[in-house]
Amino acid sequence: MPRQKLSSEEIQEALADLPGWSVQDGKLTKQFKFGTFAQALGWMVTVGVQADKMDHHPEWRNVYNRVEVSLVTHDLDNSISSWDVDLAQHMEKTAVPLLS
Known about the structure:
Layout (H helix, E strand, L loop, with lengths): L7 H8 L6 E3 L2 E7 L3 H18 L4 E5 L2 E6 L10 H14 L5
Antiparallel strand pairs: 1-2, 2-4, 3-4
């Protein structure tokens, strides 16, 4: 799927299917809380492999069992794009069995 900027309406539609996600400072954001540090780190590695395959890399921060994620497409004027939504959906799917 090509990278394309999303309108405000398209972003709101996408958020309806992304529980816990919001837009902050022009980025799609969420904090994930896992049971352990190892689960958080394992999830980051799994998501990192997929992100690398997509050539789309999240901004994220890990503290113990929490991972704070921000997604924006830098080469589309730092806007939220279809790729950000695709990666957020992958993050959700991958995180569900691990969340505390």
